[in-house]
Amino acid sequence: MRAAMVLKRSRKKELGWINRRRQPWSLEPLSSTFFSSSYSYILGPDLPDIWTPLAPPPLSSLNQDSTKLIPTIIDGKSIAEEIRAVISEEVRQMKDTIKKVPGLAVVLVGQRRDSETYVRNKTKACQEVGIASLLAELSEDCREEDILNAVTSFNRDPSVHGILVQLPLPKHMDEDKILTAISVEKDVDGFHPLNVGNLALRGREPLFIPCATKACIELLIRSGVELRGRNVAVIGRSKVVGLPTSLLLQRHHATVSNVHAFTKNPEDITREADVVISAAGVPNLVRRSWLKRGSIVIDVGTNPVEDPSSEHGYYLTGDVCYEEALQVVSAITPVPGGVGPVTIAMLLSNTLESAKRAYGFS
Ligand SMILES: Nc1nc(=O)c2c([nH]1)NC[C@@H]1CN(c3ccc(C(=O)N[C@@H](CCC(=O)O)C(=O)O)cc3)C=[N+]21
């Protein structure tokens, strides 16, 4: 009985059900950046709810009165590069010290051109930082069982620390069943119900936070945006971006309004927001009239638009009418070159964290 309880407790701890305090890792060798995978940093400080009638401090980067705004273009590409440099150095240290490297396994079903491009980018990014990558490619008409088998074999493989099933899956697949089959300790996408639940509940620490969500918060923090007390509008509520981003923003003490396809007059809500994060998957959804003057826009949309003259037969566009937004915002992420590259950097970061956990390497 006692043994069972002890076992249960350690299992709980392993799964992140028990609140743990982790030491933030220091970044002396590369202190020009402040990227850190420490949980208090990315999850936000765990503050008690004490209601005070004080207004939040003014946002220094917002100059709402000036007639001519010169918006900051938030450069995701170079931020991703800095993060990858930190990861690369850590992977090298791990390899030198314990002769092991992190491993990421990707499951790709079917032949969507955009999915193929993303997976190629992920594999290339792994190579660049010294993370081993494995790819299981299955045909569009494979059985659900074939995918489950691929996931199960990666679950058992000790050289694999992260498993990613590229979404969307073909319509006839039970996505939820497949994502839940991924071992919670290898769920680098952070879509497993246990990881989502632990992100939602304050005082708990998920083993992984979804990569695009981490990318949004990282971009805001690096742009000097104080989230505490800010009005943030999140457009979209998907498990990939919208929902986890709303949850993480609340842990950073932002006032979050989540608008979605059923929201009446969403522009009335987004127009009140200091920060707008769009993850709707609809090109040109966010117009100039949706945005408050001086606000900050994070465009998570990566919408492929058919274009025979482009290299891969399509080009990428965000959810935001970029040219219109530039006339009113104080800062914005472009597409491409904004959230996307940082999302991939966060996938590498989650895979490295997972390997460190597996090998007890800090
Ligand atoms: N299980 C799963 N996890 C995901 O994280 C996931 C997914 N499925 N399915 C699709 C979406 C989309 N996504 C992107 C990541 C990076 C770029 C990215 O790096 N974009 C580059 C351009 C890429 C290009 O050249 O086409 C950029 O914005 O600059 C785009 C999209 C991850 N997703």
From TrEMBL:
<dbReference type="GO" id="GO:0004477">
    <property type="term" value="F:methenyltetrahydrofolate cyclohydrolase activity"/>
</dbReference>
<feature type="domain" description="Tetrahydrofolate dehydrogenase/cyclohydrolase catalytic">
    <location>
        <begin position="74"/>
        <end position="189"/>
    </location>
</feature>
<keyword id="KW-0601">Photorespiration</keyword>
<dbReference type="InterPro" id="IPR020630">
    <property type="entry name" value="THF_DH/CycHdrlase_cat_dom"/>
</dbReference>
<dbReference type="GO" id="GO:0004488">
    <property type="term" value="F:methylenetetrahydrofolate dehydrogenase (NADP+) activity"/>
</dbReference>
<dbReference type="Pfam" id="PF02882">
    <property type="entry name" value="THF_DHG_CYH_C"/>
</dbReference>
<comment type="pathway">
    <text>One-carbon metabolism; tetrahydrofolate interconversion.</text>
</comment>
<dbReference type="Pfam" id="PF00763">
    <property type="entry name" value="THF_DHG_CYH"/>
</dbReference>
<keyword id="KW-0554">One-carbon metabolism</keyword>
<keyword id="KW-0378">Hydrolase</keyword>
<keyword id="KW-0560">Oxidoreductase</keyword>
<feature type="domain" description="Tetrahydrofolate dehydrogenase/cyclohydrolase NAD(P)-binding">
    <location>
        <begin position="210"/>
        <end position="358"/>
    </location>
</feature>
<comment type="similarity">
    <text>Belongs to the tetrahydrofolate dehydrogenase/cyclohydrolase family.</text>
</comment>
<protein>
    <submittedName>
        <fullName>Bifunctional protein FolD 1, mitochondrial-like</fullName>
    </submittedName>
</protein>
<dbReference type="InterPro" id="IPR020631">
    <property type="entry name" value="THF_DH/CycHdrlase_NAD-bd_dom"/>
</dbReference>
<comment type="function">
    <text>Catalyzes the oxidation of 5,10-methylenetetrahydrofolate to 5,10-methenyltetrahydrofolate and then the hydrolysis of 5,10-methenyltetrahydrofolate to 10-formyltetrahydrofolate.</text>
</comment>
<dbReference type="GO" id="GO:0035999">
    <property type="term" value="P:tetrahydrofolate interconversion"/>
</dbReference>
<dbReference type="InterPro" id="IPR036291">
    <property type="entry name" value="NAD(P)-bd_dom_sf"/>
</dbReference>
<dbReference type="InterPro" id="IPR000672">
    <property type="entry name" value="THF_DH/CycHdrlase"/>
</dbReference>
<dbReference type="GO" id="GO:0005829">
    <property type="term" value="C:cytosol"/>
</dbReference>
<keyword id="KW-0521">NADP</keyword>
<comment type="subunit">
    <text>Homodimer.</text>
</comment>
<keyword id="KW-0511">Multifunctional enzyme</keyword>
<dbReference type="InterPro" id="IPR046346">
    <property type="entry name" value="Aminoacid_DH-like_N_sf"/>
</dbReference>
<dbReference type="GO" id="GO:0009853">
    <property type="term" value="P:photorespiration"/>
</dbReference>
